[in-house]
Amino acid sequence: MKYLGHIINGDVFSESKRTLSVFNPATAQQTADVELASQVIVDEAVIAAQNAMKSWQLTPINHRAKIMFRMKVLIEQNADKICNMLTEEHGKVIDDARGELARGIENIDFACGIAQLLKGEHNSNISTNIDSWSEFKPLGVVVGITPFNFPAMVPLWMWPIAIMCGNTFVLKPSEQAPSAPFFICELAQQAGLPAGVLNLVNGDKIASELLINDPCVKAVSFVGSTPVAKSIYQQAALNNMRCQALGGAKNHAVVMPDADIDFVANSLMGAAFGSCGERCMAISVAVVIGDECADLLVQSLKQRIDGLKVGSGFDTQNEMGPLISKVHKERVEKHIESGIEQGAKLVSDGRQLFVEGFESGYFLGGTVFDHVTSDMDIYQQEIFGPVLCVMRVKNLEAALALVNKHQYGNGTCIFTQNGSAAHYFSENVAAGMVGINVPLPVPMSCHSFGGWKQSIFGDLNAYGPDAVRFYTQRKTITSRWKIPSQDHSAQFSFPS
Ligand code: NAD
User: Fold this and answer.
1) 280 is catalytic
2) Which end of the chain has the lower number of beta carbons within 10 A, N or C?
3) How do residues 344-371 score in pLDDT, each as one tens digit?
4) Is the ipTM of this complex over 0.95?
């Protein structure tokens, strides 16, 4: 049985007190024990990060970049091993695990070239004989707290950029899928990161709380559910700590009557049921304009769901794996029951699924509800499972009103062949990431990622240029050298 401790100051550490079992969700078999950090471990990690700051912030940017280039090579060389860990602990199909890792590596590519964004700003002679420039300085010790659904990618949104900006980092990954982030952190030590620059503490909410209440921590990047994101943001503000906290989602796809229904149905299958719906950018609501279009779409979805291949993520024939845990599966089943009770029409029922040879796994099939209305809990709440709600509206205005009124505003998309409808939608929709005939509009690493409304707390988005600003503080220097001919008498007014 694998045992996962912590990585502090370049070494693997364990204190063997509180532990949690990690399961393979396809088999319900335990695969590892993970330690849950106590105050002692968190203190050790933060002290290690703080000590490493002294020399790391002075390490030239090109030396830091050389380590990141080695990091990229090491991850690529170990990609199969990492993806197997992702599939074993999260359950996602192996091809999707490869996609996750690729989207994580992109952030290392971006981080390698970060000198371009750290150059600062300069103005000569901004006032007579005065020069002024701004520099972007590291903050100090930065913490990252990450969710179970992207165990490799989300940490890679954070620490490569934070450390390339000259900070040191303590990562607290999800306790439900800890192996991949742990292994990647071990690779970072092999790549030549000085001890203490990247530390990892395994743990649950207790470790998160200890980290965000540590006076030596200067900033926290959080990704997870909205209630936790909100509480982390509030606590960080009380502690005068910089915070970006990305939360949950309920992403709507608006389907115009002119859309190609086969293309929409195929797109929605991947976007709603890929990764078992456990993606913050998953489409969980299809808002269809007109009954004729809705009838066609529901029929097409039903046909496809009947053929959806659900099973172990290691079988390359499968398109969807299990949910993360028994508890989460039961939660999703309760949502399905509530949808039925509140009057939505159940078109495909994932609860009937039987996966031969994997009877104990946490599987659910694709589920579609039609005639969902905005007062239903299945519409209001994030389900984070393979459940797609279809809603019927009369026109684009009504669709927009629905999307804009929802508490979440992470991603959204429109399917149409009409350019002006697409333009009107993207201009007026209240969401952070918008797709036009693109169901999962996840920005590439040179842009930044983040939603609106209850999907984010904080001002700057994850990764990309926003992350460079998040992980640095501006210092503006105004400089004058004595010139003999100039008047140096006392000045009591602002120069005009
Ligand atoms: P979660 O909020 O339960 O946990 C996230 C992290 O916070 C974990 O590391 C966990 O140990 C820690 N944690 C849990 N409870 C805590 C508490 N009370 N105080 C402090 N820390 C706590 O989320 P999850 O179930 O791991 O992930 C799924 C959620 O993450 C979904 O809501 C999903 O939408 C969201 N998510 C959002 C994004 C985004 O970019 N907006 C990306 C991925 C996932």
Assistant:
1) yes
2) C
3) 999 999 998 999 999 999 999 999 999 9
4) yes
